[in-house]
Amino acid sequence: MLWAKLIKFMPTISQSDQVQAIQYIQETFANYVNLNEDHRTLMADIYREYRSFRQPRKNDWSSSFKVNYAHTTVNKTLPRLIANNPRWLVNLKKDEFVETDRFLQGEDRAVRLEEMREMTK
Fold first, then answer.
1. Which among 24, 34, 68, 121 is least buried, having the fewest CB atoms inside 10 angstroms?
2. Distance separating alpha carbons of residues 66 and 56, to the nearest angstrom
3. Domain spans of the chain?
4. Residues 66, 53: contact at Cβ < 8 Å?
5. pTM
6. 65 - beta bridge partners?
């Protein structure tokens, strides 16, 4: 087996290096979760409003049913738009986490996270 031969040439990673790598990945994931929290909340609110067909009654005699025009637009107009093979505009975001960010401590780290949170808005 080829993979068995290749394993002989792979360097072994010490357990302390493995722990550091795992901690770095966990911290980076937690940072991304924190940075995307506001955006995720906003998108959840928009989706909840999009999927709902009820609203508070204005009067006792009125209905709580609402006509959701966003739902109609997405289900009727959007398929017509994408049926003609449109060209998508894609903007790639540069990864704003750099190698030196993982060494920031205390207030420097908080300032850097706040800068990055402002960039995502």
1. 121
2. 9
3. 13-54+64-120
4. yes
5. 0.39
6. 54
First to last CA, the chain: 51
Could you give the count of Cα atoms lying within 13 Å of 103 in the half-sphere of its Cβ? 3
CA angle 18/23/27 to nearest 5° reads: 150
Tokens, residue 65: 């049913």
Q: Dihedrals φ, ψ of 17, to 5°?
A: -65, -40
Contact (CB, 8 A) for 69 and 55: no
Predicted pLDDT of residue 88: 64
For residue 37, give both structure tokens.
């929290």
For tokens 């940072």, name the residue: 31
Mean pLDDT to the nearest integer, 11-26: 89
